[in-house]
UniProtKB/TrEMBL annotation, chain A:
UniProt-recorded Gene Ontology molecular function terms: ATP binding; ATP hydrolysis activity; ATPase-coupled intramembrane lipid transporter activity; magnesium ion binding
Cellular localization per UniProt: Endomembrane system; Membrane
Membrane topology classification: Multi-pass membrane protein
Record's protein name: Phospholipid-transporting ATPase
Residue positions binding Mg(2+): D390, T392, D779, D783
A GO biological-process term: positive regulation of B cell differentiation
InterPro entries per UniProt: ATPase_P-typ_cyto_dom_N, ATPase_P-typ_P_site, ATPase_P-typ_TM_dom_sf, ATPase_P-typ_transduc_dom_A_sf, ATPase_P-type_domA, HAD-like_sf, HAD_sf, P-type_ATPase_IV
Gene: ATP11C
Domain P-type ATPase A: 121-251
Active site positions: D390 (4-aspartylphosphate intermediate)
Protein family: Belongs to the cation transport ATPase (P-type) (TC 3.A.3) family. Type IV subfamily.
UniProt cofactor(s): Mg(2+)
Automatic annotation (TrEMBL), chain B:
Membrane topology: Multi-pass membrane protein
Pfam families membership: CDC50
Membrane-crossing residue ranges in chain numbering: 49-75, 332-354
Protein name per Swiss-Prot or TrEMBL: Cell cycle control protein
UniProt KW keywords: Cell membrane, Cytoplasmic vesicle, Disulfide bond, Glycoprotein, Golgi apparatus, Lipid transport, Membrane, Transmembrane, Transmembrane helix, Transport
Lineage: Eukaryota, Metazoa, Chordata, Craniata, Vertebrata
Annotated source species: Strigops habroptila
Ranges for region Disordered: 1-31
Gly residues bias spans: 15-26
Gene that encodes it: TMEM30A
Coiled coil segments of this chain: none
């Protein structure tokens, strides 16, 4: 981002830049000012306007293949003489289209409202030395805007002047990139003084800057560009000139279009649809062909009793064949049910309420539950293979807390008293004796860049009601450290005229002159300060990552501290080491000179500075280490382990720096101690490598060990090198190699990611072979692009604004809620909708197949088998509600079981229930039943009479018997599949059948004045007076359901068989010392098939109903195999003292406690 | 491009705003989901587990129920007497061969007589059917070629029949009553049955009422209404169907079986489901309990052969049948029941053996050590 303020114009206008005239005052009259067109500051996210809604919406709806198909069928019915009336398909279609249009219209109205809220919000613009209140959307490029504290910037601004005299302001970009700390921005130097309305109005200038670009990180650098969406903090007001507005702001450019997401289930539906379309077409073709073969015989074509109408005789044969084909299409078109789309939509819409109603996903703190923005993706939640998660605010709580420190190998916690003498002090303290601790605390107080903010202003990040001041820093760690020191009695009071004030334990104020700050940089990974005490002593205090401090201190000091640091790091704390050295005046003078020289250097300044830093920070003495906790969200590790166990891969994509991210990954057990890390970062690759275009990616081990778990760490800079290869053609397959590595790693951590890079990663994985289902979780605006990119986007209703949750498909209060959302809700919705889809195709196949077969017996004349009312009502009334209730209420496995046993999730992975195999099964079932219905009744009708009075039935009775069998069979089939019978299921299933019977009586009981034909008059009643018909209906229903029942029996026998072999004896151990650390050991019943320990543990996990994992138990297992330790089931009674003798043999798996066998019992798993 | 956000909410959602938790707590309306069984998906539910243990007994029970029913039906069906004569006359030896190429308007009608012998006597009421083969009463063009409101006695439809009746809607600019192909092709053979006893032909009384559905006869089919009961006057302005020798108001002499409510006509108007079908023609009632309805012996069937079927390769039959509680003779249902019941029973046995085999192992495992 190149943004320069020119006081006078004259240079040639460069291509690709824009010239902004501040305050619309031409710089000079002579300068030919060509007004550039800029877009206004209106944000438009809505799709429709009032005028284009109808045509645009209809167009979009009919672009859907199914809708278009139904439209065609409808038109055919209107135009051609078809066996069924246009109403039968026109009415459902109209219903679908209307409902969808209303829904989309409503959603767009909400978007309009949201846009208006932003666009109509008030801003102040300085015009003619006066403040003018305007609506946000009226801001034009070049306007001078005044922004007050805690307001968001309405557009991208160049910072001209601030209320503070030094021309600075603090800004938080939490809603842009998720970093919630305050960043300092500086006003353009020449205009800093213009801090009143009048003064600013006198400014005459033009700005030349780049055309809008989406790259957020490049642009965040310039210190005088304020981005739209960021919030002004701790500064009364600022003046800025608008340079990018509306859709051209960085923020808008960083959002991708919210394209309509389609679920995998919908793709499967489309696949099946094509199969059924083929079936339909072939049926129609077969019938048309056979019709003309049959009709080639003249007495078949036109017997004397059935002459053609004049019109029929006159039409051309080809045209007649074509209309016949269309007629057959219409006759059989019910095989592709329009009602399925309605039911699916209803299921999704209504089903999504259960997510927002779930009280387990309600968070007491923010007083909110889950939010569903899209109901289209419910089932996708059950198919997730990759989880991409943001770190700050998603995995962590985004609040740092000082936990403990270690001074000279002694651990201190809470108060300055030794907690745990890990290694006894041996030998005298070399420097300050007992005040070693004080030195450490002073170091904490001095070695930072924290600023003090008086609390009379609006408090910021670390605001605390009682405190009179707040700390501000670009690093939350530093604040935590300073506050930690304060807890121990050393309070940092601020910086005044280069003197740092500290109040020590005795309440005395100490003053230190701050001589130099050797700033933090990610390469060095440490920072230092040089201070002079009042007594004239010179100290250098340095703090940094252990890896960067240890090589620079006395080697003999390291050991003691290292133990603590490693332990803290394993616990997931962010550790920093503190070191110091005393400088003589002579040394200091040298350093001072070198530093000043390096600062003044015109060339290679960075390198020279780095060298001076390197030289200065050497030969130090280690004082201690600190442990700061970025508190992880509750139940994070459990959740991630559950996701892992459910077969998902979790990737962390964060804008945060690597060290922090890494420690979080360890803390949440994404990386385990056994995981071998592959680092692919700017540091390992090297800055020089980034600049050059080297041909190979380093750090990839040549041999890939299968048993080893790998974790990959990559940063944004390296990633952009891989994903956006420069001119180099050979580098294009970097992406492939990288992807292969990534997919093999158990966990991947990407740090320093720009929002769009996150989306890039997601897209990359999304487009790999097999197109796995991806899910993104995030809480900040910087996650929005990846949330939009992934198949499913989840927003965390965190502290960083509402951007993420607003753009997400689902929003939950906490990361831990993912567990229930995916494992229980997702799984259930998937099973429900998959069953719904299969069932719909099945029931329409066996609905239409008899009608097809009937054509063979009615001279291929397109005579419908069923009455028009039955044709229309079958899908709408008779068989719709049971499946809808099923698809809303079914729990084939209990919710609690689903949540606690993540491996069940894998049962439905890969769209298992909508693969071709189950589809074929359902199709065959439908075909079989269709055949049974038709031929069963066909053979029944060989009889002269079915009534005991000798009277005969006609064709409508034939159809009604088939239809009755059909309705009962498909409903009972669903009843067989239902595993969760609530009163609603009972009501709709038996109610539907009762309604069918009632309707049939009613429909046949009246001579309907509006009907042309009274063909159903008393047909149903007569049918029921015949005993034969009753017997036939019962028989046919039973035959149709028989294969299904048989299958259930066979499955049950098979499972039983399976279960017996998996029977395992669990022996429970309880330690007398620690009740929490109960161990449950598995011992296989067949010793010959003894299993390795880890496998046993896995099995232990699988039998959740008997063993539950306790975190305490997990903690004590070094290999961290999930559920290696389980708590004993309640049924474990100490009834087996005799078996205690066996315990040594079993006890070898028990790790942390000496076990005492209390009981053994048998459990089995599914 | 969807940029959904509002500046207002951003400010609200920021940690700065949340710095004082509970500051505005009182005003926050609780959005806590209701803890109802329905909303938490915890409705009390019956969760059936279909296992071999529960289903296999059902197999036995179904087998045990179905087999007796099947046997019952089968026996009943076998006890039904049925006699069928094909009188199409395609074979040259057939007495009706001379009438094979008869046309609609041949006067006087071609008549033929077929003699036959009943081996067994027909004990209960006998139903006389005529049967047609290869006659597509279920052809779509045919099925819809009728006007039910005309048949229901609607006067406007009488004079202006539905378009569906084309090409049998009007004749010589007069509306046809009853219109349509179905009515036009009404079966018009006359069948008479004689018992031959020592060369004397005793006519057997054939009852022509009570062969149609009661609802059809009394509700669905109505003669046009108007002044008086003179059907001739009521059908004024209409013409007879092309193929009929006489108009609809001259179908029968009895007024309650004439016009649209003629039962032969009503029976014909109920279109058959399949191209081979039977329709009830006459009833032969049992006179007294001492004598069977039709004794075994010789009979002759007199046919007024009017109905041409040869042109479309059709067949005509006359069927005499007794009826049981389950209707006419039909071995299908009985056999099907027996088969399904047997399969059920057999599978039940086989599966029970398999189940038992594994079940044994299971129970033994329950005892630890």
């Amino acid at each position: 981002m190149d943004c320069r303020l020119r006081v006078c114009a004259g240079e040639e206008k460069r291509v690709g830049t824009r010239t902004v005239v501040v305050g619309h005052r031409p710089v000079s009259e002579t300068d030919a000012y060509v007004a550039q067109k800029f877009c206004d500051n209106r944000i438009v996210s809505s799709k429709y306007t009032l005028w284009n809604f109808l045509p645009k919406n209809l167009f979009e709806q009919f672009r859907r293949i199914a809708n278009f198909y139904f439209l065609i069928i409808f038109l055919v019915q209107v135009i051609v003489d078809t066996p069924t009336s246009p109403v039968t398909s026109g009415l459902p279609l109209f219903f679908v289209i209307t409902v969808t249009a209303i829904k989309q219209g409503y959603e767009d109205w909400l978007r309009h409202r949201a846009d208006n809220e932003v666009n109509k919000s008030n801003v102040f613009i300085v015009e003619n030395a006066k403040q003018v209140q305007k609506e946000s959307e009226k801001i034009k490029v070049g306007d001078i805007v005044e922004v007050k504290a805690d307001e968001t910037f309405p557009c991208d601004l160049i910072f001209l002047a601030s209320s503070s005299p030094d021309g600075t302001c603090y800004v938080t970009t939490a809603s842009l990139d998720g970093e919630s700390n305050f960043k300092t921005h500086y006003a353009v130097r020449d205009t800093t003084v213009l801090c009143t309305d009048e003064a600013i109005d006198t400014l005459t200038a033009t700005i030349e800057c780049e055309q809008p670009q989406p790259d957020l990180y490049k642009s965040l650098g310039p210190e005088n560009l304020l981005l739209k969406g960021a919030t002004l903090k701790n500064t009364q007001k600022i003046y800025g000139v608008a340079v990018y507005t509306g859709m051209e702001t960085k923020m808008a450019l960083n959002y991708q279009g919210k394209s309509q997401k389609r679920s995998a289930v919908e793709k499967s539906i489309n696949g099946f649809l094509i199969v059924y379309l083929c079936i339909l077409l072939s049926k129609a073709t077969v019938c048309t062909t056979l019709k003309y073969v049959w009709q080639s015989n003249p007495f078949n074509d036109e017997p004397w009793y059935n002459e053609k109408t004049k019109k029929e005789k006159e039409t051309f044969k080809v045209l007649r064949m074509f209309t016949d084909f269309l007629s057959f299409m219409v006759l059989f078109n019910f095989i592709i049910p329009v009602s399925m789309y309605v039911t699916v939509e209803m299921q999704k819409f209504l089903g999504s309420f259960f997510i927002s109603w779930d009280k387990e996903m309600y968070d007491e703190e923010i007083k909110e539950g889950a939010l569903v923005n899209t109901s289209d993706l419910n089932e996708e939640l059950g198919q997730v293979e990759y989880v991409f998660t943001d770190k700050t605010g998603t995995l962590t709580e985004n609040s740092m807390e000082f936990i403990e420190c270690c001074i000279d190998g002694h651990k201190y916690k809470d108060c300055i008293s030794e907690v745990d003498g890990f290694s006894q002090t041996d030998g005298p303290l070399k420097y300050y004796g007992k005040s070693r601790e004080e030195l450490f605390l002073r170091a904490l107080c001095l070695c930072h860049t924290v600023q003090i903010k008086e609390a009379d202003q609006v408090d910021g990040l670390m605001g605390h009601p009682e405190r009179k001041y707040t700390y501000i820093s670009s690093s939350p760690d530093e604040i935590a450290l300073v506050k930690g020191a304060e807890k121990y009695g050393f309070t940092f009071l601020g910086l005044e005229n280069d003197f740092m004030k500290i109040r020590n334990q005795k309440n005395e104020t100490e003053m230190y002159q701050l001589l130099h700050v050797l700033n933090f940089d990610p390469v060095r990974r440490r920072m230092s300060v040089i201070v002079r005490t009042t007594t004239g002593k010179l100290f250098l205090f340095c703090k940094g990552a252990d890896s960067s401090i240890f090589p620079r201190v006395q080697q003999e000091e390291i050991q003691q501290t290292k133990v603590h640091v490693d332990r803290n790091a394993m616990d997931g704390y962010r550790t920093l080491c503190v070191a110091f050295k005393e400088l003589t005046q002579k040394e200091y003078d040298k350093i001072d000179k070198q530093l000043n020289e390096a600062k003044m250097a015109l060339q290679d300044r960075e390198e020279k500075m780095a060298k001076v830093f390197e030289d200065t920070e050497a030969d130090m003495h280690l004082i201690g280490a600190t442990a700061v906790e970025d508190r992880l969200q509750e139940q994070l590790a459990e959740t991630i382990e559950a996701l892992h166990a459910a077969g998902m891969k979790v990737w962390v994509l964060t804008g945060d720096k690597m060290e922090t991210a890494k420690s979080t990954c360890y803390a949440c057990r994404l990386f385990q101690t056994s995981t071998e890390l592959l680092e692919l970062t700017a540091r390992t690759v090297g800055v020089n490598f980034l600049m050059s275009d080297s041909k190979h990616v380093p750090c990839v081990p040549r041999s890939w060990t299968l048993t080893q778990e790998y974790g990959l760490i990559i940063d944004g800079a390296t990633l952009s090198l891989i994903l956006n290869p420069s001119q180099d053609s050979g580098s294009s397959n970097y992406k492939n190699i990288f992807l292969q590595i990534c997919l093999k790693c158990a966990a991947v951590l990407c740090c320093r990611m720009a929002p769009l890079q996150k989306a890039q990663i997601v897209r990359m994985v999304k487009n790999t072979k097999g197109s796995p289902i991806t899910l993104s979780v995030g809480d900040g605006a910087n996650d929005v692009s990846m949330i939009l990119e992934a198949h499913v986007g989840i927003g965390i209703k965190g502290k960083e604004g509402r951007q993420a949750s607003r753009n997400s498909d689902y929003a939950v209060p906490k990361f831990k809620h993912l567990r229930k959302l995916l494992l229980a809700h997702g799984h259930l919705y998937y099973v429900r909708i998959a069953h719904l889809v299969q069932y719909f195709f099945y029931k329409n196949l066996c609905f239409i197949l008899p009608q097809f077969l009937y054509q063979f017996f009615c001279g291929f004349s397109q005579q419908p088998l069923y009455d028009a009312a039955y044709l229309t009502m079958y899908n709408i009334c008779f068989t719709s509600l049971p499946i809808l209730a099923y698809s809303l209420l079914e729990q084939h496995i209990n919710i609690d079981t689903l949540t606690s046993d993540p491996q069940l999730y894998m049962k439905v992975s890969d769209n298992a229930m909508l693969q071709w195999r189950p589809f074929l099964y359902w199709t065959f079932l439908g075909a079989f039943e269709g055949l049974v219905f038709f031929f069963g009744v066909y053979f029944l009708f060989q009889n002269s009479s079915l009534e005991d009075n000798g009277k005969v039935f006609g064709n409508w009775t034939f159809g009604t018997i088939v239809f009755t069998v059909l309705v009962f069979t498909v409903t009972l089939k669903l009843a067989l599949d239902t595993r969760f019978w609530t009163w609603m299921n009972h009501f709709v299933i038996w109610g539907s059948l009762a309604f069918y019977v009632f309707f049939s009586f009613f429909w046949g009981g009246v001579i309907w004045p509006f009907l042309k034909q009274q063909r159903m008059y008393f047909v149903f009643t007569h049918m029921l007076t015949s005993v034969s018909t009753w017997l036939a209906i019962i028989l046919l229903i039973f035959i149709s359901l028989f294969p299904e029942i048989l299958l259930i029996v066979l499955k049950s026998i098979k499972e039983k068989n399976h279960q017996v072999r998996n029977e395992v004896m669990y022996c429970c151990f309880a330690t007398p010392a620690d009740g929490d650390c109960q161990q449950c050991q598995a011992h296989h019943s067949h010793p010959a098939e003894s299993l390795p320990c880890s496998l046993l543990a896995q099995r232990c996990w699988a039998s959740q109903q008997h063993c539950t994992v306790t975190p305490a138990a997990l903690h004590c297992h070094p290999s961290r195999v999930p559920a290696a330790a389980c708590a004993c089931p309640p049924s474990c009674s100490p009834s087996f003292p005799a078996a205690a003798a066996a315990s040594p043999a079993l006890g070898q798996h028990v790790v942390c406690c000496q076990p005492a066998l209390t009981s053994c019992h048998w459990v089995s798993w599914p | 491009m969807a940029v959904n956000y509002s500046a207002k909410e951003e400010a609200d959602g920021h940690p700065a705003g949340g710095a004082m938790p509970g500051g505005a707590g009182g005003a926050v309306k609780t959005r806590k989901p209701d803890n109802t069984a329905f909303k938490q998906q915890r409705l009390p539910a019956w969760q059936p587990i279909l296992t071999a243990g529960t289903v296999l007994p059902a197999f036995f029970i179904i087998g045990l129920i179905f087999i007796p029913i099947g046997i019952g039906i089968f026996v009943t069906s076998n006890n039904i007497r049925e006699y069928e004569i094909d009188y199409t006359g395609t074979e040259p030896s057939s007495p009706c061969n001379k009438c094979l190429n008869v046309s609609w308007d041949s006067t006087p009608p071609c008549t033929c007589t077929i003699n036959f012998t009943l081996e067994h006597s027909f004990e209960s009421n006998v139903f006389m059917y005529y049967g047609l083969s290869n006659f597509y009463q279920n052809h779509r063009r045919y099925v819809k070629s009728r006007d039910d409101s005309q048949l229901n006695g609607d006067n406007s439809s009488l004079l202006n029949p539905s378009k569906e009746c084309e090409p049998y809607r009007t004749n010589e600019d007069k509306p046809i009553a009853p219109c349509g192909a179905i009515a036009n092709s009404m079966f018009n053979d006359t069948l008479e049955l004689y018992r031959i006893d020592n060369d004397t032909r005793t006519p057997i009384t054939l009852i022509k009422k009570g062969i149609a559905w009661w609802t059809d006869k009394n509700v669905k089919f109505r003669n046009p209404t108007g002044d008086g009961n003179n059907l001739t006057a009521l059908f004024q302005g209409t013409t007879k169907p092309v193929n009929w020798p006489k108009p609809v108001y001259m179908l029968d002499s009895e007024p309650d079986n004439n016009g649209f409510i003629n039962e032969d006509f009503i029976v014909w108007m109920r279109t058959a489901a399949l191209p081979t079908f039977r329709k009830l023609y006459r009833l032969i009632e049992r006179k007294n309990n001492l004598q069977p309805t039709l004794q075994a012996g010789k009979y002759s069937l007199d046919i007024a052969y009017n109905y041409p079927v040869h042109s479309f390769d059709g067949r005509k039959r006359m069927i005499l049948s007794t009826i049981s509680w389950m209707g006419g003779k039909n071995p299908f249902l009985g056999i099907a029941y027996i088969t399904v019941g047997s399969i059920c029973f057999f599978l039940g046995v086989v599966l029970l053996i398999i189940h038992h085999k594994y079940g044994n192992r299971n129970t033994s495992a329950d005892i630890p050590n």
